[in-house]
Amino acid sequence: MTTNKLQATIKSKDGVRVFNLTLNSMSQITQDTLKGFFTKKDYVSLEELLSFCISQTEKASQLQGQNKNLKEESQKLQQEIEKLCSKLENL
């Protein structure tokens, strides 16, 4: 039986807090990433959580940059295809 909740245990100077995160609205990739992070140890520190957030944000930024580059390349290729099709029609 699969669960739609993930228990995130975070330790701070004030003690340990447990959060039950609902997984229903997350993609499977996000679920797997969070499960991997929160289930490696009994708890994570605030510093580890912050570092994790920063690294995930950096990965997302890199993917957005790659996506932009691919879109630009796709547009250039589409324009080239249109030029070649026009030349072919004129033959």
Brief summary:
This protein has 91 residues and is α+β, with helices and mostly antiparallel strands. Helix content is 60%, strand content 20%.
Notes on the structure:
60% of the residues lie in helices and 20% in strands.
Helix and strand arrangement:
Layout: E1 5-12, E2 15-22, H1 28-38, E3 44-45, H2 46-89
Parallel strand pairs: 1-3
Antiparallel strand pairs: 1-2
Order of helices and strands: EEHEH
> What portion of residues belong to β-strands?
15-25%
Assign a percent range to the helix content. 55-70%
Oligomerization state of this entry?
single chain
The chain-level structural class is alpha+beta
Q: What Rg do the Cα atoms give? A: 23 Å
Q: How many β-strands, per DSSP?
A: 3
Number of continuous helical runs: 2
**What is the topology, as strand order, of the major beta sheet?**
2-1-3
Uncertain runs: none
Arithmetic mean pLDDT:
93
State the distance separating the first and last CA atoms: 64 Å
User: Biggest β-sheet: count, sense, barrel?
Assistant: 3 strands, mixed
Coarse shape? elongated
